[in-house]
Amino acid sequence: MVTGEPSTVPLAGGLSNERHRLPARVMRYWRWRAFFLSLPLFFLLIGAAILLPWGPWWVRWGIVGLSVVTIAACMFILPSIRYRVFWYAISPTEIDVQNGIVFLKRTIVPIHRVQDLRSVRGPLADHYAMMNLKIRTAGGSVGLNGLDRVEADELCQRISQLTDLTNDV
Known about the structure:
Elements: H1 26-51, H2 57-76, H3 78-85, E1 87-90, E2 94-99, E3 105-110, E4 114-120, H4 123-127, E5 130-137, E6 140-148, H5 149-163, H6 165-168
Antiparallel strand pairs: 1-2, 2-3, 4-5, 5-6
Helix pairs in contact: 1-2
């Protein structure tokens, strides 16, 4: 192949049959995660509305109500959009990930650039048998959040074999 000539090999995610989706239960996981992450803000706003004399009562409680509506929208609308958009594909040469909600972001990581793999599982992810995988390179990182635990283990093993990370330890 001549340098500067476009490659005829499609990207890992270029073929729709190579794309992998997350399990459907990930939407429940994302909803509960959004709920628990928003609790401190919710209690802070309620405490401020009760204790601090900033403006009329209806403004204070209106802000609390608006935040509740915003949190509910984030919990019930955004996970389904995120689920429809997210996919990943792995080939012997690259990792291709697409995610986003308003702005779609597609990240292609050459396999030979992978430096570190991290699998993280908190109590909520453990309840739903989910795992988050973080793939780090010198230029940044890519996260695969909400993978099935068995699938994440297989994926971690496959990427480790492709990158020879197990030999570097």
